[in-house]
Amino acid sequence: MRPNVQSGPGIHVQDMSHNIGPRRILDRISLQLDAPRIGVIGRNGSGKSTLARLLAGLIEPSQGRVLIEGVDVCKDRRAAISTVGILFQNPEHQIIFPTVLEEICFGLRQLGRNKADARDAALATLTGFGKAHWLDASTETLSQGQKHLLCMMAVMAMRPRWLILDEPFAGLDIPTRMQLTRHLENCGVNLVHISHDPRDLAGYAQICWLDRGQIRAKGDADVLSAFETEMIHEGARDDLADLAG
Ligand SMILES: Nc1ncnc2c1ncn2[C@@H]1O[C@H](COP(=O)(O)OP(=O)(O)OP(=O)(O)O)[C@@H](O)[C@H]1O
């Protein structure tokens, strides 16, 4: 039986740093996260997307490690793909196959499911989202919102216990964003939602503030308020120095 998603040991980031070339992007991050809804807030360039990829095990940290439900997500890829999934801001970065069926089956095949089994599971997922008629659709004919939904279905078909959201709905219209968010919130997966916008994280129990590659604060909604206050203060300055890189 699958364990209750809320009772697992959660996410442990252990003294993790990440360098790109000579530059330190994330600096000695340690986190213990165990709420079903976790928000990570930070400015542009603070390291959010890098942290998202590290949490999903897609890149190897220069130092330290990430354990999710006890799985070292970088070292044990087979276990990691059934433990944690990720949705990117741009679905084009995720979709690689010409048809919806192939796209959803890919992850299931990586989990070791045979072809027929994977097809059945893909169809069951599509049916669950009311999209069984998409099975043989071409991925390139889907709208941006439909591509986001496909990515979500492909990840959910693998039934991960955790899902990392790297600002996946930033470019979508309000109804589409609300509908996709509602699906995610009702599907029983633990979320780590990464955003620069406090509105995305309203109501989240645990918030981490990432600032220039370090954890500036961790706590409840007060952290969001403190972030917002500082951002408004920063925005009032007539200066683009922070975007200098
Ligand atoms: N491949 C790369 N090569 C060099 N520098 C990089 C690379 N990827 C990221 N960086 C740098 O690392 C820092 C953190 O980038 P990251 O994309 O993780 O931040 P972010 O908080 O997600 O930013 P944004 O909100 O603007 O997307 C930035 O200064 C960025 O320029």
What does this protein structure show overall?
This protein has a domain at 11-89 and 160-237: Rossmann fold (3-Layer(aba) Sandwich), CATH 3.40.50.300. The protein has 245 residues and is α/β, with parallel strands linked by helices. The radius of gyration is 18 Å and the shape is globular. The chain contains seven helices and ten strands. Helix content is 33%, strand content 25%. α3 packs across α4 and α5 (144-157) packs parallel to α6. The structure holds adenosine-5'-triphosphate (ATP). The site of adenosine-5'-triphosphate has 12 residues, from α1. Residues 11-237 form the ABC transporter domain.
Characteristics:
single chain; 245 residues; alpha/beta; Rossmann fold; four-stranded antiparallel β-sheet; 7 helices; binds adenosine-5'-triphosphate; AAA+_ATPase; ATP binding
Quick structural overview:
This protein is α/β, with parallel strands linked by helices and 245 residues long.
Give the overall form: globular
Note the gap between the termini: 48 Å
The helix fraction, in percent, is 25-40%
The main sheet orders its strands as: 6-7-8-3-9-10
Quick one: CATH superfamily of the domain at 11-89 and 160-237? P-loop containing nucleotide triphosphate hydrolases
- Ligands bound to this protein structure: adenosine-5'-triphosphate
Beta fraction of the residues? 25-35%
Order of helices and strands: EEEHEEHEHHHEHEEEH
| CATH hierarchy class name of the domain at 11-89 and 160-237 | Alpha Beta
> How many runs of DSSP E, i.e. beta strands?
10
What's the architecture of the domain at 11-89 and 160-237, going by CATH?
3-Layer(aba) Sandwich
Family: Belongs to the ABC transporter superfamily.
InterPro entries: AAA+_ATPase, ABC_transporter-like_ATP-bd, ABC_transpr_CbiO/EcfA_su, ECF_ABC_transporter_ATP-bd, P-loop_NTPase
Pfam families: ABC_tran (PF00005)
Domain ABC transporter: 11-237
